Amino acid sequence: MSVKSIAAKIFAQKIYTKTQAWSTNPVASQQAVFKSLMRDAKKTEFGVDHNFGEIKTFADFAKNVPIRDYEDLKIYVEKVVNGEENILWKGKPLYFAKTSGTTSGAKYIPLTKESMPYHIEAARNAILHYIHETGNADFVDGKMIFLQGSPILEIKHGIKFGRLSGIVAHFIPKYLQKNRMPSWETNCIEDWETKIDAIVDETINENMTVISGIPSWVQMYFERLHQKGGKSVGEIFKNFNLFIYGGVNYEPYRAKFENLIGRKVDSIELFPASEGFFAYQDSQKEKGMLLLLNAGIFYEFVKSDEFYSDKPRRYTIGEVELEVNYVLIISTNAGLWGYNIGDTVQFTSLKPYRIIVSGRIKHYISAFGEHVIAKEVESALQEAMEGTTARVNEFTVAPQITPDSGLPYHEWFIEFENEPDDIVAFSEAIDDAMRKQNMYYDDLIVGNILRKVVVTTVIKNSFQDYMKSIGKLGGQNKIPRLSDNRNIVDLLNKV
User: Helices 215-229 and 251-261 meet at what angle, rounded to 10?
Assistant: First the structure.
C-alpha cells in the first residue's frame, strides 16, 4: 500500500466524521446556512429590495422572496454581468458559468469566492466517502480522467466566463495534477469528436483507474477506445474499477457499460450543477445521494403537483416526506434567491437526508393528465431490459396525440446497441412497468383514452447527430428523457 493511499484513508476518516456532525443535525445545519445568507447579503441591492435586514425566519423570507427562475432574476444578473458590484451577493463573482438555457438562450450563473470551494470539496468528499466505506484506495496511485468542457475562459469587467466543468478544471488539487488526464492542451479542444479522439490517443496506454463524466459522453469515449484497441475497456485498463458520473441516470446505460468494460465496476453518482453542488452518493449500500446541508445552500421544496398553483406551499428540510416528487428551490452564497433550478427530487431516506433526481419540472408528459416523470420512464426501461439481451444507447419519450389511425399513445424513440429478440414483448414490458408506477397512466389505458406504448427504433448515432445538429454535442449537454411535445423527436427524425 502506497503512502498516498494510506494518507487518503486517514483523510477519508476525518471527512466522514465531519459529515456525520452536520448530517445528524439537519435542521440546525440548514438554519445556520439561512442565517449566514441573510447576514451576508442584506446590504446587496437584492437584499435591500427584499428586506433582508428585517427577515428573521423562513416565513419572513417566503413572504418577501417569491420563487423565481432565471428569467425572473435576469434583471439583476445582467447588472452583475455588466460589472456592477453588490447586486446579488457582496462584491463581484469570481466567475460566471455559462449554460445552455432551454427558453432563455444562454444563462449566466454566478460563482463567488464563498461558493466555489464547495464545488471542489463535494466532488473530493464523494470519493473520500467511497474510500472510507469500502477501504479501496489503491486507485489514487493510477491515472484519473475527467471528461469535461474546455478550461479556456473569457474575462469581462474583471469576471471570468466559461463552462462549469472548464472552470472546475482550474481547481484540481496539486496532489492530483500528476494523475489527472487528459492534458491541458487536449482539454482545450472545442470540437467534441476531435477531443474524444485526442483523449483516446493520450490515455489508451496509461494506467487508468478512475473515469468520470456524463454517461452518454463516456460511452462515446469507451466505444472509440474499443475501436482503436480492439479489446474491451477493462482489458485496456486492467486497474479501472471506479466510474464517477452525474447529469443523468446511469441505470439505462449500465448494461451497455458493463459490456464495453467487460466486467462490473463500482460507481459514484454526483449531483452537481452550475447553481451549486447539491448531493453525492455517500454509500455503495444505500439508495440515493446525501443532500449537502452545510454547503452554502438553503433548500426549499415544493410538491411538483402543486407547483403551478397560485400559492404553492414551500417546505423546508424538516418537513419533507419520503417518495414525494418535489421541485428543488435554492438560495445560495453565489446570490441565487428562491431559485427554481428546474430539477425534481424524491427523498429515499430522512436519516440522513438522501435524494434521487426524479426529472425536470418542464420535462414531463401530461398531454392527457398522466403526469409521467423521468424517473418513471427510466425505471420502466430498466425493468423491461431485465432478463433480456437488450442494451440501450439512448432514448427519449414523447406523446403522439394525433396518430394517423387508432388511439393516441406514448412513443418511445430508442437507439439500441442490441435490439430485444421480441420488440412487441419488450414494448409490453415497458407499458406494464409504466402502469404499475403511474396510476393516472393506468387509468388512461384502462379507459381506452390511450393505447399501449409504441417503441420506435432509431439508427445508431441518431442522438449524437441530433445533438450535433443543434450545437450541443459533448460537454454537459444531455438529451431530455421525455417531453410534453414532439419538438425533439420531429428533429430527431430529420437527422
Answer: 20
